[in-house]
Amino acid sequence: MESAVWLCATYGFRRSEVLGLKWNAVDFQRKTITVRHTIVREGSEAVQKDTVKQNASYRTMPLIPVMESYLKKLYDRQQKDKKLCGKSYQDSDYICRRIDGSLLEPNNATYRFRTIIRQAIADGELDKYIKFHDLRHSAASVLINNGCTLKQVQAWLGHASIRSTERYAHLEYSALVEAGNIINDIFYKAAGKATQDIVV
After folding, report:
1. With helix as H, strand as E and coil as C, how does 96-124 read?
2. Domains in the chain, ordered, with CATH?
3. What are phi and psi of 26, to 5 degrees?
4. Whole-structure pTM over 0.85, yes or no?
């Protein structure tokens, strides 16, 4: 699950997109990563598709340095796994796969993520439950809260319409509310009054 979580938290990929990523989608020379395949659940089977959700979902993104370094290490690790597993290794070109090389299926990915999160909550490492898709929301939140425009976030997430991206616009306002509360606190203290946060 490490590779799937790391990629989704960084690029905001959909579950189908991250599971469908192949090594040939990564160009270490040009420093790009391209979304062109997906793995989806149809009935009781995981289906590999050479299509994406919509035209905007097909996108080539910059291979950021931290991810380039991680993917190179992951590739080397998978080559070692292949040698360790020998003939039982199920070779494929998918980036997110099990130690024996077999396909990481959508339902299994969701189940394993849920198990990891529940254990993290039990261990006190997280204070609330999150779903696999929330990694996509987190990526959008980070971008918005660090000054990216909705248009930039739209392109990064592969939204066909800016309206899909506008759900994150409230994050900009909440950042303003936080700043307003700080200023409000300063002036209330200067006036010798008890602080009172902005109510939204």
Report:
1. CECCCCCECCHHHHHHHHHHHHHHHHHCC
2. 1-129 (1.10.443.10), 134-200 (no CATH)
3. -100, 120
4. no
